[in-house]
Write a structure and sequence with these properties.
The protein is of the alpha+beta class. The chain has a domain of 86 residues: SH3 Domains (SH3 type barrels), CATH 2.30.30. Helix content is 54%, strand content 11%. It is built from 9 helices and 8 strands. Helix 3 packs antiparallel against helix 6, helix 6 runs antiparallel to helix 7 and helix 7 runs antiparallel to helix 9. The protein is flat, with a radius of gyration of 24 Å. The termini are far apart.
């Protein structure tokens, strides 16, 4: 046995320890609750909404690190075998953690469910649970944003009515902004963890798609239309006639609602996809996409106008079947929903850099109607 092998055998526990130390670093961190905006008083008007957001976010911050830990440990061992030193072990641990995090979930499921039918059913169940949790997280974040916007508007109303001074109003608005900055950062971290888990599920769905002949592999973001970019300022537009609101900027995408002629919506331009599209919000805060040709400026619309009242249509369709194709479909749906949350967070970043939390006229990005975070 070579001296290198003897040394490696002697220090094998340390090699695996390196892997176990590296792997937790793969998990996303959440904002420190002691940081500015992190602590929240019991009398904060948005304490309930924040509690809902952080409670649901904990689901995603329970990182699926089993695969990362195993991958890191094996990567550390492989690095040490190849390089023969602890630096190689550390590098191997990092690479193994990344690879293990992607394939680890499926590997663990396949090991626990040697029967293919059970394996498909187990992954399907996890994906369906993930689907519901993404919906709850998105609704909770929209609830937080609506509450913070309403809080800021209330402070401005108090100032305009002479109930508080300008200095007090500015101080209170700054405090609201600080709290919302923490909440936006929290949502960003949760979104990052969603995406990591999404990669694991997509890997699993790809492997499972090979079980049944004719089952396609999960569609990539680019192919599904989820690689769009929402750009530019928030614009006020009017629906020139009744029109469909779609989940993605594509005529083949699922319809999630509609606008009536004369409804005024907040809209932003969409790039990165063919055809002209704009992203709008329905009254319940649900984002969707409308053909830009069907939205006009208020001065060009000749009929009566009104604030948007349309809401997302209830999704009564049955979930996909518990099959390889159903697993693929759920993985793709979750990918779309993850992108919708990312768009919400991005728009909220725009709020933080706008006059929303100033005494000036605010930029309204919150839903125009009430939001039920538990929806």
């Amino acid at each position: 046995m070579s001296a290198r092998a003897v040394s490696l055998k002697k220090h094998l526990p340390a090699v695996f320890a390196i892997g176990l130390l590296v792997a937790p670093g793969i998990a996303a961190c959440v904002p420190d609750s002691s940081a500015p905006g992190g602590t929240i008083a019991a009398n904060d008007p948005c304490s309930s909404q924040r509690s809902q957001l952080t409670a649901i976010g904990d689901y995603f911050n329970q990182a699926m690190i089993e695969g990362a830990v195993a991958g890191a440990a094996l990567g550390a061992l492989g690095g040490a075998l190849i390089g023969g030193d602890w630096q190689s072990a550390a590098i191997g641990a990092g690479v193994g953690a990344v690879g293990g995090a992607v394939a680890g979930y499926y590997s663990a499921k396949a090991e626990a469910n040697t029967d293919r039918t059970q394996l498909v059913g187990g992954v399907y169940k996890d994906l369906y649970s993930e689907n519901q949790q993404i919906d709850r997280t998105t609704a909770a974040f929209r609830g937080v944003r609506a509450c913070r916007t309403a809080e800021a508007n209330g402070i401005r109303a108090d100032y305009k009515a002479g109930r508080i001074s300008a200095d007090e109003a500015r101080g209170r608005l700054a405090a609201v902004k600080t709290k919302f900055e923490w909440e936006v950062q929290y949502a960003e971290e949760v979104g990052g963890k969603m995406n990591e888990r999404g990669q694991e599920y997509t890997y699993a769905a790809t492997e499972i798609s090979h079980f049944e002949p004719g089952t396609r592999t999960p569609t990539t973001a680019a192919a599904s239309g989820a690689n769009y970019q929402v750009t530019g300022p928030v614009l006020t537009r009017v629906a020139s006639k009744s029109t469909r609101v779609r989940e993605l900027p594509s005529t083949s995408s699922r319809q999630i609602g509609g606008l009536k002629a004369g409804e005024i919506v907040e809209a932003r331009e969409v790039t990165g996809v063919s055809g002209g599209w704009m992203r709008v919000r329905l009254a319940d805060g649900t984002p969707g996409f409308v053909s830009a040709s069907l939205l006009v400026t208020q001065d060009r619309y000749r009929g009566d106008t009104a604030a948007v009242a349309s809401r997302a249509e209830p999704q009564t369709a049955a979930p996909p079947p518990q099959s390889a194709g159903g697993v693929v479909q759920l993985a793709e749906t979750n990918q779309i929903k993850q992108r919708a949350l990312a768009d919400d967070v991005s728009e909220s970043r725009t709020m933080l850099s706008s006059t929303t939390f100033e005494l000036d006229q605010p930029l309204t990005l919150a839903p125009l109607g009430a939001v039920d975070p538990a929806a």
